[in-house]
């Protein structure tokens, strides 16, 4: 990942114990997704569909553009979230969205692992 793609200075966002220093907020509506100190910084390569509108769908294949993201906030319990919604199952995956404005996907959850919810650092704001 290029330095200019890094979502801000990592030390600004991640505390000494590896948790989020700031609140995690929806980029569109500002709704709080996570309180400070509630998630662990994790580097895992995940492919998430692009956050473009449905017009971004390819009519020929029905496929969507996607982004490979590596910096995430890892949460081990769904009740840790202040505000999060889920898409319908896509295979064994549920995508995380903002529960208020439904923008997303902001994250990823595999149904095989009940204790891993990933929120992409680049797809949320921090305050």
Q: Which characteristics define this entry?
A:
127 residues; six-stranded antiparallel β-sheet; three-stranded antiparallel β-sheet; 1 helix; 9 strands; globular; disordered N terminus
Look at the helices and sheets and give the structural class: mainly beta
- What percent strand? 25-35%
The largest sheet is: 6 strands, antiparallel
Number of strands: 9
Report the C-alpha radius of gyration, rounded. 14 Å
Distance between the termini: 24 Å
- Strand order, main sheet: write it out: 3-4-8-7-6-5
Mean pLDDT over all positions:
88
Low-confidence stretches: 1-7, 54-60
What is the overall shape?
A: globular
What is the overall number of helices? 1
Q: What percent of residues adopt helix (DSSP H or I)?
A: under 10%
Order of helices and strands: HEEEEEEEEE
Give a description of the structure:
The chain is mainly beta. 3% of the residues lie in helices and 35% in strands. It is built from one helix and nine strands. It has one helix at residues 10-13, and strands spanning 24-26, 32-34, 40-49, 66-75, 85-86, 93-97, 107-110, 117-120, 124-126. The strands form two sheets. The chain has a six-stranded antiparallel sheet with strand order 3-4-8-7-6-5, with no helix packed on it. It has a three-stranded antiparallel sheet with strand order 2-1-9, with no helix packed on it. The chain is globular. The protein starts with 9 loop residues before the first helix and ends with a strand. The model is unreliable at 1-7 and 54-60 (pLDDT under 50).
